[in-house]
Design brief:
Helix content: 10-25%
CATH class of the largest domain: Mainly Beta
Order of helices and strands: EHHHEEEEEEEHHH
Low-confidence stretches: none
Strand order of the largest sheet: 5-4-7-8
Shape: globular
Number of strands: 8
């Protein structure tokens, strides 16, 4: 039966698809009834709490085969990857540093590359995790982050701007959605750092630059 899903914090199209038994999120995201949502949220894994997602009725697929034989069926599902770039407070990458990542009951480890980047395939339903990074700093030998997977809002929201500024080390408040003194100061500092016009405006130029410096690898 077709229905409507109201997005909660931490939801993404992948996790929503799995919740309703779809192996491919595109069946939901590309449905004509979600055309308005797709136009508003072009990146399927950047949704905002309160968004409405139409869930179509699942179609049954029939396969023929001899009744006196055993048949194997393979379900193909899309892979979900967690991608992170780790940098210090001077915007320098944590290059070739050992890390440990825990997502649910799964544990991963490895070393960042020269840009501070790494990625791992994770379960689509994962919402939280813990990351530990081993540094060469005598005072901060191990840095620890609690991860809220799928909680990042799009840049067309104030929360999305605040979250990116916070992750990049410019904002130290909460992503409240209200533009106060701390948010304005963070915007000005970010603009100055990136050789932009120094003001407090949240405009297309700022949103685009934040997507480039935060959302893309490296």
């Amino acid at each position: 039966m077709a229905q409507t899903h109201t997005v909660q914090s931490g939801d993404c199209i992948e996790s929503i698809a799995r919740k309703y038994g779809f192996g491919d999120f595109k069946i939901i995201f590309d449905h004509p009834n979600n055309a308005e949502l797709k136009q508003k949220r072009p990146k399927p894994n950047l949704l905002v709490a309160g968004d409405k997602v139409f869930i179509p009725e699942k179609e049954l697929k029939e396969e023929s085969g001899a009744t006196d034989k055993t048949h194997k069926f393979q379900i193909i599902t899309k892979k979900v990857k967690l991608r992170l770039v780790l940098k210090d407070d001077k915007d320098q990458p944590f290059s070739d540093k050992k890390y440990e990542l825990k997502i649910g009951n799964k544990e991963y480890s490895g070393n960042t590359d020269s840009t501070g980047y790494f990625e791992h395939e994770i379960q689509p339903v994962a919402k939280t995790g813990e990351l530990k990074l081993h540094t060469e700093d005598e005072k901060l030998k191990v840095l620890t982050w609690n991860l809220n997977i799928g909680a990042l809002d799009p840049t067309d929201t104030v929360q999305g701007v605040q979250e990116r500024l916070k992750n990049l080390g410019f904002y130290y408040g909460t992503a409240s959605g209200r533009v106060g003194k701390r948010t304005k100061a963070a915007i000005k500092a970010y603009r100055k750092k990136n050789n932009m016009t120094v003001n407090e405006d949240i405009d297309d130029e700022l949103r685009g630059k934040l997507r480039d410096s935060h959302d893309k690898k490296g």
